[in-house]
Amino acid sequence: MQLEKFSYDNKIVRNFLFATALWGLIGFLVGLICAIEMFWPQMTNGVSFLSFGRLRPLHTNAVIFAFVGNAIFAGVYHSLQRLVKARMYSDTLSKIHFWGWQLIIVAAAITLPLGISTGKEYAELEWPIDISIALVWVIFGWNMLGTIIKRRVKHLYVAIWFYIASWATVAVLHIVNSVELPVSFFKSYSMYAGVQDALVQWWYGHNAVAFFLTTPFLGLMYYYVPKAADRPVFSYRLSIIHFWALIFIYIWAGPHHLLYTALPDWAQSLGTVFSIMLIAPSWGGMLNGLLTLRGAWDKVRDDAVLKFMVVAVTAYGMATFEGPMLSLKSLNAMTHYTDWVVGHVHLGALGWNGCMTFAILYFIIPRIFQTKLYSQKLANWHFWLATASILFYAVPMYWAGIVQNQMWREFNADGTLTNQNFLDTVTQIIPMYATRAIGGTIFIVGVLLMFFNLYKTVKSGKLLANEEAEAYPLAKANVKHEKEHWHRWIERRPIQMLLLSVVVILIGGAIEMIPTFLVKSNIPSITSVKPYTPLELEGRDLYIREGCYNCHSQMIRPFRWETERYGEYSKAGEFVYDHPFQWGSKRTGPDLAREGVKTGRLYKPNDWHFNHLLVPDSVSDGSIMPRYPWLLNKLDSKLLEKKITAMRKMGVPYPEGYESKAIGDMNLQAKEVAKPLYDNIDGLMISDETYDKIAAGEMKLEETEMVAIIAYLQRLGTDIYPKAKK
Amino acid sequence: MSVLFLLIIISLSVAAFFVGCYYWAIKTDQFEDDYTPSVRILFDDEIVGNKKSFSTIRPDESSILISDQLTKKPRE
Q1: Which of A18, A211, A304, A702 could serve as A670's disulfide partner, Cβ 3.0–4.6 Å?
Q2: Which helix (H) or strand (E) is A109 found in, with range?
Q3: Which of B9, B10, B7 is nearest to A199 (CA)?
Q4: Which among B32, B64, B17, B52 has a CA at the least distance from the CA of A244?
């Protein structure tokens, strides 16, 4: 066998590392703005693209797909080449992957603040970006699997298994959850509706946490922790068990995001059972990571890289214990919709993903730049700041979650709610919001130290773009026989065969299933539930554009302390025309599922909504809701006909030809909604200028976006109640 | 709730894919040696020219060499 000489591509690793750091900082800063808006909502008053509902999706997408995404790619491209002793399959594919992913991030950073959103959490990007993600993801897989196939080491180290599983599963999740019907280049509707959309979304959302934030990072852990400690992993056998156990269990746990909702009970219980089972492999993996450092704890004392890894793995352990606990119905009843969940995800995000990424940055950059880290001391400072910030972040959030939930469910002796006004439960926890922002600031200060440290390191060294390496090729295991059966040829190509079969299964399944369930399942099970009127549909799209679902749920759980506050609990049949569903996952503001019910506790007249949307604190003192002055803009209903047609295609029973009548109906209803506003024009919180314009007839309230969104809010939850006679 | 069936089928196909991977891994002796790989990854960085090292040993003799180095016994 001839020793082969080749080189590792370090340039692509550097590119991904730099992108990780840059997008990370931007994502963290956006997060900090969001955190400050929670106790100082006026900070970005009146600037539409800086309002919380639009920035929060930007924050989540940036930290998940830009920061963590680029970190995954950097780690995979660096470790995979060394693990299989081969250069990446194709430099061109590497470049397309890198630049494609960065373009997607830029597209996200532009569209999300503009309110171009599908309204599904962690999957807000519109369909052209979704398609680009799928394509770039395929390129990544092609490059990675190509490298694995031409490897020079027969054994696939456990990290590689984690990479393959992450790639394959994320591809499936992304495609299934992103099945959308485009209305225009910037607008689409989820093909799934209501409770089904919710289930698909959280199947995706949970597995995005599993296969984007967890399994790739476990692969990185199994490579970089042993490398940094210069010790083999505690138990290689355990790492293999960790892998197989995790991937078979993880995918079934999604429904734990929908406990006590209108999702069928058995699906909820299934999610809980699998969530509890997850403790075993997760903790096995955490212990395996920590015990790798046995006999090397003296190194941890000095080496910031190892310190970051210890905190990261510990955070992984804590978050994966907390997750299953939050999946228990009794605890979930208490924590769901509260800030506890926000604290939980940030323990994972800042601790596990953040600290592991920092460790990898500090580990790889000096090596590929052939130098030493500029300052261990600064890196240690960064470590302590990051660790302290996690506590400053998580503890107030847990506290806020418990306090708020206890206030929600508190009853007086006479059976009435103690905190009738939802806002009282919000103002109570504002100090915790402020403390959280301090935690976030400390985290960012640490990141700035890292920037300086890494900049100095890079300046003092020189990139080794192509690192020489040598290894023997793999012995050819299969010798071709003459006249063999065709199937033998496939059998020798297990990876290709598996990929091919999974693609075939998926395509087959999709073609067979999607049309059936789309048509059949949209038959409403509650006859009084009707499609939205054109005006309400437009209003709903504004609700999605402004990201109202980031702070308001539309799902009342069957607890007395919820039905007493909000009204009748939500039924699955009420959401059959909701493309996409808007149940939400957090109540920074009250639930809106019964907002429009006239006899309900939350009912407010149109002019109240008008003032509330313009200047929330004018009608509810101390409100932390942003102001929405731009809702006085004229409603753009150019797409209305197409929207109606699209909805009908998805099984919403608008009569044939209704799209041509829709505009007329919309204008009629707008006049009706605007009438109480005109009646109380002196009570509206509008500027003198606007008042004059309305008086002069230059501006018509019935043409504003405001009227559409009010119409939608007043429709919410009303269908199951008998209609009042006109 | 027919979407449940879609998700179950897709989740099962993903699981089937992994079962296939697992089967392939067993068949190709991926898990025969559950110790050496964890050590091998630690020795891959420098080129040593003609000197024998972990990056230049032939794959078929790798496990012998590694266990030699770990136990520090002379080769027979």
Answers
A1: A702
A2: helix A91-111
A3: B7
A4: B17
- Under an 8 A CB cutoff, do B47 and A470 touch? yes
Mean pLDDT of A512-534: 68
d(CA A209, CA A305): 24
Shortest Cα distance, chain A CAs vs residue B74, angstroms: 23
Tokens of B5: 């069936």
d(CA A710, CA A529): 19
Beta carbons of A490 and A497 less than 8 angstroms apart: yes
Chain A residues near residue B42 by CB distance under 8 angstroms: 226-227, 230-232
Q: H or E stretch including A182?
A: strand A180-184
The answer to whether the Cβ–Cβ distance between A226 and B18 falls below 8 Å is no
**Hey, what amino acid is at A180?**
E
Which residues on chain B are in Cβ contact (under 8 Å) with A226? 38, 41-42
Q: How many whole angstroms separate alpha carbon A229 and alpha carbon A300?
A: 8
For tokens 């078929």, name the residue.
Answer: B60
Is the ipTM reported for this complex over the cut 0.85?
Answer: no
Residue A1 exposed, middle or buried by CB count within 10 Å (0-12, 13-18, 19+): exposed
pLDDT, residue A34, reads: 96
Give me the mean pLDDT over the A161-176 stretch: 92
The helix (run of H) or strand (run of E) holding residue A315 is helix A304-326
Interface contact A494-B28, CB threshold 8 A:
yes
Mark the ranges of chain B whose per-residue pLDDT is less than 70: 1, 44-76
pTM: 0.90
**A86, A144 Cβ separation under 8 angstroms:** no
The residues pairing with A5 across neighbouring beta strands, listed in sequence order, are A470
Quick check: A217 and A72 in contact, CB under 8 A?
Answer: yes
Is B46 part of the contact surface with chain A (CB cutoff 8 Å)? no
Count Cα neighbours of A627 within 13 Å in the Cβ-side half-sphere.
18
Q: What are the structure tokens assigned to A324, written together?
A: 């299953």
b or e along A19-38 (b: 16 or more beta carbons within 10 Å of the residue's beta carbon)? bbbbbbbbbbebbbbbbbbb
Q: Are A619 and A680 in contact (CB under 8 A)?
A: no
Is the pLDDT confidence value at A539 over 60? yes
- The closest of A209, A226, A109 to A159, measured between CA atoms, is A226
Helix (H/G/I), strand (E/B), else coil: A266: helix
Query: Cβ A1–B58 below 8 Å, yes or no?
Result: yes
Q: How far apart are CA A321 and CA B5, in angstroms?
A: 29
Domain boundaries, chain B: 1-31, 33-71
Would you call B25 and A156 a contact, using CB atoms and an 8 Å cutoff?
yes
Band of pLDDT at residue A490, cut at 50, 70 and 90:
low
A181-185, A425-429, A518-522, A699-703, range with the lowest pLDDT: A518-522
The residue in chain A having the minimum alpha-carbon distance to the alpha carbon of residue B24 is A494
**pLDDT above 70 (res A430):** yes
| Mutation to test the A interface, candidates B3, B34, B57, B61, most A Cβ within 10 Å | B3
User: Any idea which of A84-88, A594-598, A680-684, B2-6 has the lowest mean pLDDT?
Assistant: B2-6
Strand partners, A471: A4
